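testing teh design pipeline on a random one, pls ignore if ur not involved
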């Protein structure tokens, strides 16, 4: 695996990693896998999530299989820099919900030696690139696309099909409204 290799001159440099995919593709599992290894290595880590639902202000966590990481909820990408105190690792979950400044923030951190790990949906339910994700993917050193399994045929799926008629891009707290579909099954439903 290419990740976490140190340059030959021994100098630690920053970079951007993106983990992307549809809903139910295991993005969070992959993020947590990386975060566990970082924690095990004793490296300083900050994890951020966008505050999507402003009605709730409780502690936000990202968890999977018993591993739990506290996430700092922020209202804007720039706010990430207010929290950063030279931690070597900055992870960003649900990166698709951030404003475009997230690209500049990630690049700024990487330029200062930070390993930036962004996880997010690459496409919305209409199969359009989601928010700042295409720009993050373009500027990242490493992009990992993970796949779900098509609910209809069992092939690898990369589309998050919304089963209801709502058309807003963000449906908060409604994962059950979606199903992962492959290209062929998604196209059959769309046309
Ligand atoms: Zn299919």
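output:
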């Amino acid at each position: 695996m290419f990740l976490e290799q140190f340059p030959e001159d021994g100098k630690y440099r920053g970079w951007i990693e993106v983990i992307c995919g549809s809903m139910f593709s295991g993005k969070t599992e992959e993020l947590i896998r990386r975060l566990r290894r970082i924690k095990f290595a004793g490296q300083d880590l900050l994890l951020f999530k966008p505050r999507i639902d402003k009605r709730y202000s409780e502690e936000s966590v990202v968890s999977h299989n018993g591993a739990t990481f506290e996430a700092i909820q922020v209202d804007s990408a720039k706010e990430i820099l207010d929290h950063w105190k030279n931690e070597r690792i900055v992870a960003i979950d649900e990166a698709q919900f951030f404003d475009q400044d997230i690209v500049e923030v990630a690049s700024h951190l990487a330029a200062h030696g930070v390993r930036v790990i962004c996880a997010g949906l690459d496409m919305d339910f209409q199969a359009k690139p989601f928010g700042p994700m295409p720009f993050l993917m373009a500027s990242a050193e490493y992009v990992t696309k993970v796949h779900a399994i098509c609910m209809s045929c069992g092939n690898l799926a990369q589309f998050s099909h919304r089963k209801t008629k709502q058309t807003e891009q963000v449906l908060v707290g409604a994962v059950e409204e979606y199903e992962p579909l492959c290209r062929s099954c998604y196209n059959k439903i769309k046309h």
